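#lab-general

N.A. 3:47 PM
ok so I finally got the sequence cleaned up, no stray characters, all 295 residues accounted for. can someone with queue access submit it? mine expired

B.Y. 3:52 PM
send it over

N.A. 3:53 PM
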Amino acid sequence: MKLKILLLTLFLTSVFQGILAQEKLQYNLKKGDVFLVKQVARQAIVQEIEGATHEIVNDISGLMEFKVVAENTDSYAIDITFEDLVMTMTSSIQGVLMDIHAKEVDPDNMQSRIFHSLLNVPIHIVLANNGDVLEVQGGDSLVVKMTEASGLQDDFSLNMMKASLKKEFGSEALSNSYKQMTYIYPNKTIAVGDTWENTYEGKLTAQNVWKLDSVTTENAMISGIANILMDIKEPATSMLLDGKQDTHITTNLNSGFIVKMRVEGVSKGFSTITQLGDQKIPTSISSTVTYELIQ
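B.Y. 4:20 PM
back already:
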């Protein structure tokens, strides 16, 4: 009898421990919540042209504010604003191609005026509990504002610039961009060691496999691996590359919001430049992006 009771006790204990170890990872936000996130990114593009190597390095840093303006049954309305943005582009052949500090507007520099105009303009998104971005409003209006800030007058140049900016800052482009930071949770209860999958698309398409690595009383640690495809088509150049991406995330169990996130990716393939005709140029891109909650 004692043995049966002991075995039953051990069985129930293991069952309850299993139940307690289950986690429902999701966003749990409240109206009025404000999160300030620092983003730092470096991207190195290497092209091999007729035996010569050309490297372009893009460095970007910025601050984004996320403000919860409404709570719905299974989603949240959030306003996102760029508080600051610093961008530099350096070529191994041509030197510095761009050096923009958005807060420090230079009236005589068109690029400076354009990027200054995107600061403090709220973009409205609807965020699902799992981090999927269901809706984005305001991106296309932002593109119009940035285009107007260019100072260009002729319709052809304005339309060309609007089309180019829309690929980066239009509502659809921003939706895909935000997903890379937010779309990290499963639609099921999980335990440490469990995995789940999701996909986001755009210029960068990623097929993600996520894993819950560990849990503390305050945080969840998540890692992800992904197959990525970069398909970029611009008037003067195009790129088609594929590769791998690794992600490591620390999130807050209470709010679900990220505390830290690091994304590293490497992809290889070919690019073309209009002035070189149909020549396929071997191209590789390596990138590192970090997000850190600072408020």
